[in-house]
Amino acid sequence: MVKAEYEITNIVLTVSYEDVELDLERVASGLEGARYDPEVFSGVAYRTSEPETSFLIFASGNANCIGAKTVEGAERAIENLTQELRELGFDVEEPETEVQNMVATVDFHRRFDLEEIAMNYHHAEYNSEIFPGLVFRWEDTNTTVLLFVEGEGVCAGAKNEEEIEKAIGRIEETID
Questions:
Q1: Tens of pLDDT along 54-68?
Q2: Rounded distance, CA 108 to CA 120, Å?
Q3: Which family does the UniProt entry place this protein in (predicted)?
Q4: Could you identify which of 63, 119, 122, 142 might form a hypothetical disulfide with 157, taking C-beta atoms 3.0 to 4.6 angstroms apart as the criterion?
């Protein structure tokens, strides 16, 4: 049997600039393409093209970096944002960052009988009338895997690649 393969499709990091208050009007007007409408959302939405990521930036000096495919790409985007904020006159130090979520698509190279799996494993949830995938959740981790009939899956909630690989391994062990 061919071992499952995965590809990271999204990484979410929190970004914290300490001891800084950001003027979001100035941030939005200084970052090309940034959007800020405080009546709709309390932060600045800013998209970068290289690397391709999006940021939600808040007056508190906190931000979320979304959409990177690698941790290195996210870190590069954060470095670029930090430099841009400095160029706008903000006194920001290197921020604290933390991976909050990694999402990966998984190819298990086989089909799944989701109803049979759901009947045999207590940590599997399946209701085809509500959602076409089976949800695997374990009590000892925040990682969740969605399985689909055709053998595809989505792993979410991981903080690093090791957690993704462990979750995939658990699925393979459980179902084989």
A1: 999 999 999 999 999
A2: 19
A3: Belongs to the TBP family.
A4: 142
Burial class (CB in 10 A: 0-12, 13-18, 19+), 155: buried
* E strand or H helix that includes residue 152: strand 152-158
Instruction: Specify whether domain 12-99 bears CATH 3.40.190.10.
Output: no
Domain limits, the chain: 12-99, 108-175
pLDDT digits (tens, 9 = 90+) for 2-50: 689 999 999 999 999 999 999 999 999 999 999 999 999 999 999 998 8
Q: Is 149 helix (H, G, I), strand (E, B) or coil?
A: coil
Distance CA 176, CA 113 (A): 12
Residue whose C-alpha is closest to residue 169's, from 150, 143, 148, 149: 143
The answer for residues whose C-beta is within 8 angstroms of residue 75's C-beta and 6 or more apart is 97
Instruction: Please state the pTM of the whole predicted model.
Output: 0.89
**Which CATH superfamily is 108-175 part of?**
TATA-Binding Protein (3.30.310.10)
